[in-house]
TrEMBL record:
Domain GFO/IDH/MocA-like oxidoreductase: 154-275
Protein name (Swiss-Prot/TrEMBL): D-xylose 1-dehydrogenase (NADP(+), D-xylono-1,5-lactone-forming)
EC number in record: 1.1.1.179
Oxidoreductase in keyword set: yes
């Protein structure tokens, strides 16, 4: 049986283009059991939407015979052919856009972070429940094949032995000082800052690799944080969150807009082996290597090689769950989204970073 999901793409920027790329590559696989059809691109102007369709190569030949259209927001929300909306806009717009999508009877996949804070996220979750519609935060990292394999090695096979310490870093040198404060990456009114933009991935690794439970069932932990707030734009461009679980496992979870991170953005240390992860983007964990303390054992190496950016894994998972009548993801349930949002809320509170929308 073939599952088909009809998408509306909200936001005609780079991240939406990367997401669409994966849907189109998937569609030309003759053996694929899941097909993703792009119905409409919602944008602030028709010309921007049309440019998006053209520049990302959305054609009837790779879109299940359907010609995608572009619509301004009001018409987009009301389009009855759309099953699910992908929200690829800056996170300060997420709450309103997800609300409008749910109110108009659409399922929603919204880019991370789902909102500015856990309070707003909780309100969206309650709305999704009331509308009986699927809602998920787009933390695509959790859906990669490598993550499933790694968690099997850590928690089931105990390949690393007893795990005690994690280093996870997502850092990119944006040359912040050269950027105007009006750009999204520095504008506090647009939710700028390393923690919400990229630090969420470091926190996610702290959850994926140190705990085999999710959300409300998670192993109890405590966190402490240090954010460096820029004196000009007042947001954090350097972020460190320390996490300690009650079973003794610890993680140092860092992010920065000032420096480039190491090639191995994750290092997980166990009594029997060390796990390292690398990729061109710490958000997409395509490769890993497990090196044993016992040098007579050959390393375990996994490298993913295909034409996908990696968004297809969450898209296919969502298609299956919606087809089964579910309204939340089993891989990333709402309680886990709220838990991670709570960690970042606490970090910002501890360091005095409050966004204008929260005052």
């Amino acid at each position: 049986m073939t599952i088909t999901l009809n998408w509306g793409i909200l936001g005609a920027g780079n991240i939406s283009g990367q997401f669409v790329h994966d849907l189109l590559v998937n569609n030309v696989d003759p053996e694929g059991s899941i097909k993703h059809t792009i119905i409409s691109v919602g944008s602030s102007s028709a010309s921007k939407g049309e440019d998006f369709i053209k520049s990302n190569g959305i054609k009837t030949s790779n879109n299940n015979g359907v010609e995608a259209i572009t619509e301004e927001y009001d018409d987009f929300y009301k389009n009855g052919k759309i099953d699910i909306v992908y929200v690829g806009t800056p996170h300060t717009f997420h709450k309103e856009q997800v609300t409008q999508s749910l109110e108009n009877g659409k399922h929603v996949l919204v880019e991370k972070p789902i909102t500015l804070n856990a309070k707003d996220a909780r309100e969206l979750i309650e709305l999704a429940k009331s509308k009986n519609k699927f809602l998920m935060e787009g933390v695509w990292t959790r859906f990669f094949p490598s993550v499933k394999l790694i968690r099997e090695h850590i928690f089931e096979k105990k390949t690393l032995g007893e795990v005690y310490k994690l280093f996870a870093d997502f850092s990119m040198n944006f040359e912040v000082e050269k950027l105007p404060t009006s750009l999204r990456g520095r504008d506090i009114k647009l939710g700028a800052g390393a923690t919400l933009d990229i630090g969420i991935y470091s926190v996610t690794y702290g959850r994926i690799l140190l705990d085999d439970k999710l959300g409300e069932n998670s192993t109890p932990f405590d966190t402490k944080s240090f954010l460096s707030l820029d004196p000009t734009d007042k947001v954090d461009h350097d972020s460190t969150i320390l996490i300690k679980y009650e079973n003794g496992k610890q993680g140092i979870l860092t992010s920065s807009n000032h420096t480039n991170g190491p090639d191995s953005f994750v290092r997980l240390e166990g009594t029997e082996a060390v796990l390292e992860m690398w990729s061109d983007n710490p958000a997409r964990p395509k490769n890993f290597k497990i090196t044993f303390t016992d040098k007579s054992k050959s390393p375990i190496v996994f490298e993913e090689k295909n034409d996908y950016n990696g968004f297809i894994y969450e898209a296919n998972s969502i298609a299956k769950e919606i087809n089964e009548g579910k309204i939340e993801s089993s891989v990333l349930p709402w309680s886990e989204t709220l838990l991670v949002m709570g960690i970042m809320d606490k970090a910002r509170l501890e360091n005095g970073l409050i966004y204008p929308q929260e005052k």
